[in-house]
Amino acid sequence: MYANLVYKRRSVNPGPPSYTLWMEIKPFRKLLRRVYRPGTAPGTLPTPTGPPRPTRLRLTRFDAEALLEVDLLTPEGIDQCNEGRLTWLDVEGQDIATIEAVGRHIGVHPLALEDVVNLGQRPKVDDYDECLFIVLDRVRLDAEALSVETEQISIVLQDDLLVTFCESGNEIFEPVRVRLRSGKGRIRTSGTDYVAYALIDSVVDHYFPVLDTIDDQIAQLEDGIDESPSSADRVALHRIRRNLILLRRSVWPLREMVARLQHSESELIQESTTVFLRDVADHLALIADMIEAYREMVSGLMELHLSAISNRMNEVMKVLTIIATIFIPLSFIAGVYGMNFDTQASRFNMPELSWTWGYPAALGLMALVAVGLLAYFKKRRWI
Amino acid sequence: MYANLVYKRRSVNPGPPSYTLWMEIKPFRKLLRRVYRPGTAPGTLPTPTGPPRPTRLRLTRFDAEALLEVDLLTPEGIDQCNEGRLTWLDVEGQDIATIEAVGRHIGVHPLALEDVVNLGQRPKVDDYDECLFIVLDRVRLDAEALSVETEQISIVLQDDLLVTFCESGNEIFEPVRVRLRSGKGRIRTSGTDYVAYALIDSVVDHYFPVLDTIDDQIAQLEDGIDESPSSADRVALHRIRRNLILLRRSVWPLREMVARLQHSESELIQESTTVFLRDVADHLALIADMIEAYREMVSGLMELHLSAISNRMNEVMKVLTIIATIFIPLSFIAGVYGMNFDTQASRFNMPELSWTWGYPAALGLMALVAVGLLAYFKKRRWI
Amino acid sequence: MYANLVYKRRSVNPGPPSYTLWMEIKPFRKLLRRVYRPGTAPGTLPTPTGPPRPTRLRLTRFDAEALLEVDLLTPEGIDQCNEGRLTWLDVEGQDIATIEAVGRHIGVHPLALEDVVNLGQRPKVDDYDECLFIVLDRVRLDAEALSVETEQISIVLQDDLLVTFCESGNEIFEPVRVRLRSGKGRIRTSGTDYVAYALIDSVVDHYFPVLDTIDDQIAQLEDGIDESPSSADRVALHRIRRNLILLRRSVWPLREMVARLQHSESELIQESTTVFLRDVADHLALIADMIEAYREMVSGLMELHLSAISNRMNEVMKVLTIIATIFIPLSFIAGVYGMNFDTQASRFNMPELSWTWGYPAALGLMALVAVGLLAYFKKRRWI
Amino acid sequence: MYANLVYKRRSVNPGPPSYTLWMEIKPFRKLLRRVYRPGTAPGTLPTPTGPPRPTRLRLTRFDAEALLEVDLLTPEGIDQCNEGRLTWLDVEGQDIATIEAVGRHIGVHPLALEDVVNLGQRPKVDDYDECLFIVLDRVRLDAEALSVETEQISIVLQDDLLVTFCESGNEIFEPVRVRLRSGKGRIRTSGTDYVAYALIDSVVDHYFPVLDTIDDQIAQLEDGIDESPSSADRVALHRIRRNLILLRRSVWPLREMVARLQHSESELIQESTTVFLRDVADHLALIADMIEAYREMVSGLMELHLSAISNRMNEVMKVLTIIATIFIPLSFIAGVYGMNFDTQASRFNMPELSWTWGYPAALGLMALVAVGLLAYFKKRRWI
Amino acid sequence: MYANLVYKRRSVNPGPPSYTLWMEIKPFRKLLRRVYRPGTAPGTLPTPTGPPRPTRLRLTRFDAEALLEVDLLTPEGIDQCNEGRLTWLDVEGQDIATIEAVGRHIGVHPLALEDVVNLGQRPKVDDYDECLFIVLDRVRLDAEALSVETEQISIVLQDDLLVTFCESGNEIFEPVRVRLRSGKGRIRTSGTDYVAYALIDSVVDHYFPVLDTIDDQIAQLEDGIDESPSSADRVALHRIRRNLILLRRSVWPLREMVARLQHSESELIQESTTVFLRDVADHLALIADMIEAYREMVSGLMELHLSAISNRMNEVMKVLTIIATIFIPLSFIAGVYGMNFDTQASRFNMPELSWTWGYPAALGLMALVAVGLLAYFKKRRWI
Question: Minimal Cα distance from E278: which residue of D?
Answer without folding.
Answer: D126
